[in-house]
Specification:
Length: 339
Amino acid sequence: MLAIDVKDLRKQFNVQKNREGLSGALKDLFKREYNEVTAVKDISFQIPQGEICGYIGENGAGKSTTIKMLTGILVPTSGELKVNGYVPFKDREKFVNGIGVVFGQRSQLWWDIGVIESFQLLRKVYRVSEADFRKRLNELVERLQLGDLLNRPVRKLSLGQRMRCELVASLLHNPSILFLDEPTIGLDIVVKTEIRDFLMQMNREQGTTILLTTHDLQDIEALCSRVIMLDDGRIIYDGGLDDLKNRWSKGREIQFQFAGQTQLAKLRQLTESLDVTWTMENEVTAQMWLPHTVNVSDALSCVVGGVQIRDIKIIETNTDDIVRSIYSSGSASVAKETV
C-alpha cells in the first residue's frame, strides 16, 4: 500500500489586486479585482510506506501548499490525492489519526502552559488511552532527553528545546506518516544532528514514512535517499539523491601534498589508464580532477603506489551547488556538459 498517492494535483488562489492611490483604494472598497495564481501545477508522485523523501524547492515553489493539501488544511482545485488510503479533506477525522505534522515556524503547543499539559491536551484531541500515552511519552522523552522540560511553559523554552517538544507532540498518537515542514530552521548544528538521528532511528525501527521539506540540504543528505524537486509549482526532478549528484556534479577534485619534489609528467604516467586531469600548484602540491565515471579508490591506488604522499584532501561538488545549478537552468532533465 502506498503511503501517499498524488495524481495531477493543482491548487489555484484568487489574490486581491490592490490599485494604487486613494482613488484606487476607494474603488477596491466597492469592486475588488483579483489575480489568479496557480501555486501547484498538476503534479503527480507516489511515496511507498517507510520511505523518507525530501521535498525541496525555492521560496514560492509550492512546497508548503502541497503539504497543506496532503494534511487536509487546503482543498485542491483539481486532481486526486490519497494519504494512508484516505482523501485528507474528506475523511478528516479518520485521516488525522494516522499522520503527524511539524511546521517549523508554527507551534502546536500552548504558549503559556507547561509542556506536559500541552501533551495531555493533545492526548485527548487524538483520543489516545492513558496507558498508551504514558508508554509512548516515556519512550519519546527518554530518546529526546526532555525530562527536565516537561513542567516548563513553552514560552520559556529555547528554539531547539521547543522543536524537540514539537516532534514529541506530533508523535504521541504513533502516526504512520510524519510531515515535516522546515523542522530544523534556525537550529544550531548540535540540535539538528540530534533531530536527524532521532528521525533516522524512528524510520528504521518503526517504519515511519517521512515527507520532509527544507531549505537545509544537509537535512536532505543526512536523511533522504529520494528527493522531489519543485520549481514554479511543477516537479522538475523525482528520483534518487545519488542519481542527481551523478548527473549534475562536475566531478571531484583530489588535492595531494607530496613528501618530496614530484614531476607532473610522472603523475600523468601513473594515471594514464584513467580519464583524469592533473594541475601542479608547486613542486610538492598537485590537484587531480576526475569525473564520476572514475572511482576515487582506483585513482588513489595508482598514485599511492608511485609517489610518497604527505596529505590528501577530496573535494566534491556539494548538493547546494548542484541544486542551485538546476534552478538556474529551470530543469533537471538534462545535465550540463562537464567542463
